[in-house]
TrEMBL record:
Name of the protein in its database record: Gfo/Idh/MocA family oxidoreductase
Pfam families: GFO_IDH_MocA (PF01408), GFO_IDH_MocA_C3 (PF22725)
Organism: Saccharobesus litoralis
Gene Ontology MF terms in the entry: nucleotide binding; oxidoreductase activity
Keyword Oxidoreductase: yes
InterPro entries (alphabetical): Gfo/Idh/MocA-like_OxRdtase_N, Gfo/Idh/MocA_domain, GFO_IDH_MocA-like_dom, NAD(P)-bd_dom_sf
Gene3D superfamilies in the cross-refs: Dihydrodipicolinate Reductase, domain 2, NAD(P)-binding Rossmann-like Domain
Keywords in alphabetical order: Oxidoreductase, Signal
Family in the record: Belongs to the Gfo/Idh/MocA family.
Keyword Membrane: no
Length: 329
């Protein structure tokens, strides 16, 4: 492996542009290759982000010995097969959240990665942000006492294009897998407790995917979470951790927050932790460090954490009655 870590990208779409931009940070590697079925799209992406080579075939990228790791940024439905191909090719892989469509697929990938001794991680980038490290420090120092209740919301009114992946069941669309995954993963991260019981309700739209979802969790230590996500309306989009002695506010936009606030005894401490680039660079640095060290998982975003989130989202979709066409096969 060279001194500069070389990334390959599969799926040069919206989120991949953010990933590639983060590679301009001076503590991470570089964009080396991109693959897309649309070669023109791949070429434009490569030029925009100063990459080296592009392919119109995923297998060509996986066969390139210069690629140190692959970032998968395609719609959810394609994550499983593409990540599987990376693992079988011996390529370390970071998969944009959610890792797969359901827990069954996630378990298969995790088992395969272990068998072939290949690094695999879900791209839950929020957990690596400096703001989240600050919140962890406050919680470890018992600043707000025992956590009793976490609330979070993630919602915006989207343009109703039924061909877009957000509303397309064939692409595993729906608000839960796209936005709600942040609510679930961050709640579990801060509680550090399993979900004992849960109740979900919501609105399933005309295309058969969830467009609004409300979730109530009771955790194993008698603490609670109340989470909401929506394609139908703009929500508060923050996260609040309520403890016995105070609370912590993450936001605005809790999943990409640069500001966190500690409120205890009528006093307020606000800390701003600006990104080096756009926030993706911190999870990139984690992957690179793990791969260089020969680790198969991140100690922060390990397989068990991903699996726990996937199992909860499976249960939520079951309560809502949302099943994707591929799951019926």
């Amino acid at each position: 492996m060279s001194a500069s870590f070389r990334w390959g990208v599969i799926g040069p779409g919206r989120i991949a542009n953010r990933f590639a931009s983060a590679l301009t940070a001076n503590f991470v590697g570089e964009l080396y290759a991109v693959a897309s079925r649309d070669l023109v799209k791949a070429q434009l992406f490569l030029q925009k982000h100063n990459g080296k080579v592009c392919y119109d075939n995923y297998q060509q990228l996986l066969a390139d010995p210069n690629v140190d790791a692959v970032y998968i940024a395609t719609p959810h439905q394609f994550h499983f097969e593409q990540a599987k191909a990376c693992i079988l090719a011996g390529k370390s892989v970071l998969v944009e959240k959610p890792l797969t469509v359901n827990a069954k697929q996630s378990i298969t990938l995790m088992d395969l990665a272990k068998k072939h001794q290949v690094f695999l991680m879900e791209g839950m980038w929020s957990l690596f942000l400096p703001s989240y490290r600050q919140v962890d420090d406050w919680l470890s120092a018992d600043k707000i006492g025992r956590i009793k209740f976490i609330t979070s919301s993630f919602g915006c009114k989207i343009d109703r294009d039924e061909n877009d992946r957000w509303l397309n069941p064939a692409l595993a669309g729906g608000v839960l897998l796209d936005m709600g995954v942040y609510n679930v993963a961050t709640s579990l991260w801060f509680h550090k407790q399993s979900v004992e019981t849960m109740q979900a309700s919501g609105i399933v739209g005309s295309t058969g995917v969830d467009e609004l979802c409300l979730m109530n969790f009771k955790h194993s230590n008698m603490s609670y979470s109340q989470l909401s996500c929506s394609f139908l309306a703009d929500l508060q989009n923050d996260l609040v951790i309520h403890g016995e002695k105070g609370k912590i506010h993450i936001g605005p936009l809790f999943w990409e927050a640069e500001t966190v606030t500690l409120l205890v005894d009528n006093s307020e401490l606000k800390i701003h932790t600006p990104f080096a680039v756009n926030g993706f660079e911190y999870q990139i640095a984690e992957v690179e460090a793990c791969v260089r060290a020969g680790q198969l998982q991140s100690s922060i975003m390990d397989h068990q954490r991903t699996l726990q989130t996937m199992q909860i989202m499976d249960a939520v979709r079951q309560q809502l009655g949302v099943v994707y066409p591929a799951e019926l096969d």
